[in-house]
Design brief:
By secondary structure, the chain is mainly beta. The chain is built from 1 helix and 3 strands. Bound molecules: iron/sulfur cluster.
């Protein structure tokens, strides 16, 4: 059976929250019986939900400012 797992791929200090945040990748691993390689499904910031509640735009991972990517 295929398995979906969130994995940390990068940790950076974020100026918006003044602490470390993790960029996470959702991976889809196929069943052991299939020869398919793992697939990347999506990305998110570990603090993205909290940053969505800020009054000001923050970054692309909170979905409020597509011009700022603190992990770049
Ligand atoms: S969602 Fe954006 S602003 Fe918020 S902690 Fe993550 S990288 Fe920083």
């Amino acid at each position: 059976m295929a398995e979906r797992i969130w994995e940390v791929c990068k940790v950076s200090f974020c100026d918006h929250v003044k602490r470390a945040a993790a960029l996470e990748t959702e991976m889809l691993y196929p069943a052991d019986t299939l020869p398919d390689p793992p697939r990347v499904l999506s990305h998110r910031c570990s603090l993205g939900m909290q940053c969505n509640q800020f009054a000001q735009p923050t970054c692309i991972w909170a979905g409020t400012n597509p011009d700022v990517d603190p992990f770049r």
